[in-house]
Design a protein that fits this description.
The chain has one domain. Helix 2 crosses helix 3. It is built from three helices and no strands.
Length: 95
């Protein structure tokens, strides 16, 4: 039985295109897999700790994450200024 699906030819390559080399991937699979798993576990641990701190402080988890992100970024001071201005607007104008 013939298929109705048209066969697509691979695009023609030019001399300037890079050749894909899969050996570096093969050589790194174990390390990449291990690092991926460690990153996943770290994300889960971070989320669990944020939730625990949220329960103890009564701060929203998003506030804790934003605070940590601001401390670790170059925009930390801008975040502080923005938060102060936003608090002022809510206090003076309301919602």
């Amino acid at each position: 039985m013939k298929s109705n699906v048209a066969r697509m030819e691979p695009p023609a390559t030019t001399e300037t295109e890079n050749v894909i080399a899969l050996q570096p991937l093969r050589e790194s699979i174990k390390e990449l897999t291990a690092l991926h798993e460690r990153a996943k576990n770290a994300r889960e641990s971070y989320a669990d700790l944020v939730d625990a701190v949220s329960d103890k402080t009564k701060l929203k988890p998003a506030v804790i994450r934003a605070f940590i992100n601001a401390r670790l970024s170059e925009t930390g001071q801008r975040s502080v200024e923005r938060a102060k201005q936003l608090a002022l607007v809510f206090e003076e104008v309301g919602i």
